Amino acid sequence: MHLRPTSGVIVRMLALVVVAVVAAACGSSSTTSTTSTSLPDAAVHAARSEGASASRTDAAGVEWLCRPGRQPDPCVTGLTATVVPASGSTTVQHASVATDPPVDCFYVYPTVSAQKGVSADLHVDPAESAVARSQASRFSQVCKVYAPMYRQITLAGLTAGARAASAAVIAYEGVAAAWRDYLANDNHGRGVILIGHSQGAAMLIALLRRQIDDDPTTRRLLVSAIVLGGNVTVPVGGTVGGSFQHIPACTSPSQTGCVIAYSSFDQPPPPDSLFGRPGQGVSDLSGTATVAGLQVLCTNPADLSSDAAAPLEPYFPTRSLTVGLGGLSGLSAPALPTPWVTEPGLYSGQCRSTGGATWLQVSAPTTPGDSRTVVGQTLGPTWGLHLVDVNIALGDLVTVAATESAAYGRHG
Q1: Residue 72, strand partner residues
Q2: Cystine design at 86: which of 205, 365, 366, 370 (Cβ 3.0–4.6 Å)?
Q3: What are residue 262's phi and psi, to 5 degrees?
Q4: Which of helix, strand or coil describes residue 363?
């Protein structure tokens, strides 16, 4: 993957995930300790044989990237943001990690591993930590964030066409094992929000299909599922069916037990698009490639109940949040004093469907005097705005998660 040279605060953010991958590929090592623990010998051996750190691996042999109380935890970071308006001076916006949130979040990260081979091992590289900070940490305002390491299909495995069916099974089995471990040892009957993007979304679609959708007891724990860039399907014009038989699309911010899904583009997806078209691109990773009578689901996180365009609330990390990636991090992140930057009123989002594609149309109309630079299709039209699916509306997603969590507390 290569990013074309550009300038501007937000365009530089497009490189965050790729920069993290480059840093990992250059041999940066995790700072996680590998001291011995009281784990059973078999679990320790299995975890270490796949690159895991004993200090991050629990008795079930699951390696956790993020888990409450575990340090370092990239899903718990500073949340202060610099607000960059269309004109005038910037301001600082404060937010904090919830001390006792009522629900949990279970986050599965997208394709970031630059390790050699088709399947990544379980070593926590800078790439996984960086993407967790970028995508998951702001949800700590709402929930306790759990994020397992899993043997994902690497960038090399995807881009070289070397992916085998067994590699997808390996990736899924790791996520499923972590989910079972979380339910058995950490959930304690709490509501949970599932969050995933790209390959992570595909893993969660498969998990929802196989372990949640048909199980009323487990399904009652579902506050919502936020699965972006994964091609969730529904019957054309419908809200349930397709990928899931019992989990509908979220059509209200107070609805629970539902799914939020979209892929973002700034122009209609082409016929060979990897996202927004059922049965194409990422679809085969989740086993939902059937296309007859189906469309990809789009729910607008800025306004779940309307088809109209609505302002999006983006949040992108700054250089101060990417500490640990070395000098490469400065190529993608602006040097602001806060961990985050947000640019209100710059983008709007609207779900659109035409020519067999359904997507979240992200628009940034030119406003006189507004010099802020907008995101573009950095990886080409087949990818659209895939790299920023989460961050382009992260504020909206966190707001919806908070509203749904409150509703779940009243009715869950």
Answers
A1: none
A2: 370
A3: -170, 165
A4: strand
